[in-house]
Design brief:
Its EC number is 5.6.2.4. Keywords: ATP-binding, DNA-binding, Helicase, Hydrolase, Isomerase, Metal-binding, Nucleotide-binding. It comes from Kribbibacterium absianum. The chain is an alpha/beta fold. 42% of the residues lie in helices and 13% in strands. The chain contains 21 helices and 18 strands. The protein has a seven-stranded parallel sheet with strand order 3-4-2-5-6-1-7, with helices on both faces. A seven-stranded mixed sheet has the order 10-11-9-12-13-8-18. Strand 3, helix 5 and strand 4 form a beta-alpha-beta unit. Helix 13 packs antiparallel against helix 14 and helix 17 packs across helix 21. The longest helix has 23 residues. The protein is globular. The mean pLDDT is 92. It binds adenosine-5'-diphosphate. The site of adenosine-5'-diphosphate (ADP) has 12 residues, from helix 3.
Length: 546
């Protein structure tokens, strides 16, 4: 067996491993399963390519969901002199036969689309020789709690088991790789793939050079004006503006062009030619920014993107972090700004409900919806949260991070604001009484089995005389009007703060309801102090930001 460092140098031309690569290579080469959670560009491919090449002979299999990336990977390997090929729906029968004939006869890496895994001829060809390993790229696709669930990924386990050809009946080691995985998804990957005592590596997701912030324009018009203003101030740099729909891409692109900005646009409704043109204009700096749907970015190799501005909220923190993470690849300071409007939640809920083909199995469909809503709620909490954005993002991926951005990182919006308040000696306010009133309102509704959504809880606390409140008799509750001394926006903010700090939570449903968490129950019992920054000033015309 060849030394990994030798393969790294001779085949790929690199002098040193990146963090975690060597550990994963070592595990796989010794026959152990591995789960590698590493951010995009951390170098996941080498983790399985090197052990595949360290074996004397045999064809290793890489399951990959993205046809275009598959072709790129294979082309890069061939350029490095590695016998690699792929099998997917783009190949004709003759080409597929050609590839299958090379399996076990010199082919070292075979990339396959998940829907090919049931192909008998493929299994037979692989069983004729040793299979050093099976790599599962984008392994989160196996989890219904992940972003892009692919039912075909559920076949991988059975497929790998069928490759057990050695005397001991052991299947090849499996490498599961992903850039996005929460604790829950990680467990799903290990369980569903049947990984046996896998080596687990989780690289840090921190991107110290990215400054995260959220702004809250009140109207669509205000948001569009902010997008144009933001990009205009940064025409000497490159940036990406993400929009929620094709229509929104077109509208923002036109607004930018009308104000003299050399913007490109990119969405699935354009022809392949137009899309390639837009991509090239952006990569070669003929356009200073590209306005795009989330279809843009996969496989784009541009390291000097200095901002990613989201004109609308994505469906999940995973998606947000992946898209925002396209900024600052070169390590220089870059901005990741999200423009959040409550109204965007409706669009995203609609997309969760109608955006995918759905499943025939009602239980699976239920689970898909619930996980979609739960991820959307986590994204909403990121948007409305007033704590450190870096802490919130890394915490979401199960990583412990300091409560505040320190001197080694680009500070996020809330940390910059907190530093400014400290400098001006603006202290946090004691909001314990208001917080307890809000908690007791939710508790009482819950006890009466009349749990309500955030809007209705706010209406009750405000003592609203709306028909909705009166018809339901909510005005007769003892907690009705307890916070009528506060403006509506402030009551809503208080409920969001209680969610952010884990004292309240929302159910994962189309119409989410607020409920008290265990921590909330305890806070009520102990009358725990609740401090918060002074309310942001409203009505000044400037969108509030944090
Ligand atoms: P990922 O799959 O994690 O997004 P890739 O495997 O595509 O990342 O690697 C990203 C880039 O980093 C590629 O251009 C790759 O050649 C390069 N790379 C990977 N490992 C190393 C290394 N040890 N030294 C230098 N460059 C590396």
């Amino acid at each position: 067996m060849t030394d990994p460092a030798v393969v790294l140098k001779q085949v790929f031309g690199f002098d040193a491993f990146r963090p975690h690569q060597e550990d994963v290579v070592g595990a796989l080469a010794s026959g152990r399963d591995a789960l590698a959670v590493m951010p995009t560009s951390a170098g996941k491919s080498l983790c399985y390519q090197i052990p595949a090449l360290m074996a004397e002979t045999g064809t290793s299999v890489v399951v990959s969901p993205l046809i275009s990336l598959m072709a790129d990977q294979v082309a890069a390997l061939q350029e490095a002199g590695v016998a690699a090929a792929y099998l997917n729906s783009t190949l004709g029968t003759a080409e597929q036969d050609e590839v299958l004939a090379r399996v076990g006869h010199g082919l070292r890496l075979l990339y396959v689309a998940p829907e090919r895994l049931g192909d008998e001829r493929l299994v037979r060809a692989l069983r004729s020789g040793p299979v050093p390993l099976v790599a599962v790229d984008e392994a989160h696709c196996i989890s219904q709690w992940g972003m892009d669930f692919r039912p075909d990924y559920l076949r991988i386990r059975g497929f790998a088991d069928r490759l057990a050809t050695d005397g001991a009946g052991e299947r090849p080691p499996i490498a599961a790789l992903t850039a996005t995985a929460t604790e829950r998804v990680r467990e799903d990957i290990v369980r569903t793939l049947g990984l046996k005592d896998p080596l687990r590596v989780v690289a840090s997701f921190d991107r110290p050079n990215l400054a995260f912030s959220v702004e809250r324009p009140r109207t669509g018009k205000e948001r569009d004006a902010r997008v144009v203003g933001f990009v205009k101030e940064r025409q000497d740099r490159s940036g990406i503006v993400y929009a929620a729909t094709r229509k929104q891409v077109d509208a923002l692109w036109e607004a930018l062009r009308a104000s003299g900005v050399r913007a490109a646009r990119y969405h699935g409704g354009m022809s392949a030619e137009e899309r390639t043109g837009a991509q090239e204009d952006f990569v070669h700096d003929r356009a200073c920014c590209v306005v795009a749907t989330n279809a843009f970015g996969m496989g784009i190799d541009k390291s000097d993107v200095s901002y990613v501005l989201h004109a609308a909220m994505p469906q999940s923190v995973e998606a947000y972090y992946q898209e925002a993470g396209r900024a600052g690849r070169d390590g220089t300071p870059a901005e990741c700004v999200l423009l959040f409007r409550e109204a965007d939640l409706g669009t995203q809920r609609f997309l969760i409900e109608h955006g995918s083909e759905g499943c025939d199995d009602p239980a699976a469909e239920q689970a898909r919806l619930a996980s979609g809503y739960a991820r959307l709620e986590a994204m909403r909490l990121y948007a409305v949260g007033e704590g450190c954005k870096r802490h919130a993002l890394l915490g979401y991926f199960g990583e412990k991070a300091p409560e505040r951005c320190d001197a080694h990182v680009e500070a996020c919006g809330p940390c910059v604001a907190a530093a400014a308040r400290a400098e001006q000696h603006v202290a946090d306010e004691d909001r314990t009484e208001d917080a307890l009133k809000a908690l007791s309102c939710v508790a009482r509704l819950q006890n009466q089995r009349r749990a309500q959504g955030r809007g209705r809880v706010a209406a009750v606390l405000l003592g609203s005389r709306s028909a909705d409140v009166l018809e339901r008799g909510l005005d007769r509750l003892p907690t009705y009007g307890l916070l009528s001394h506060l403006p509506k926006a402030e009551v809503e903010r208080l409920l969001d703060l209680l969610c952010e700090r884990g004292l309240l939570a929302q159910t994962a449903a189309a119409l989410p309801v607020l409920y008290l968490t265990d921590a909330g129950v305890q806070a009520m019992r102990e009358r725990a102090p609740f401090l918060a920054a002074p309310a942001p000033r409203r009505g000044t015309g400037a969108p509030s930001s944090h």
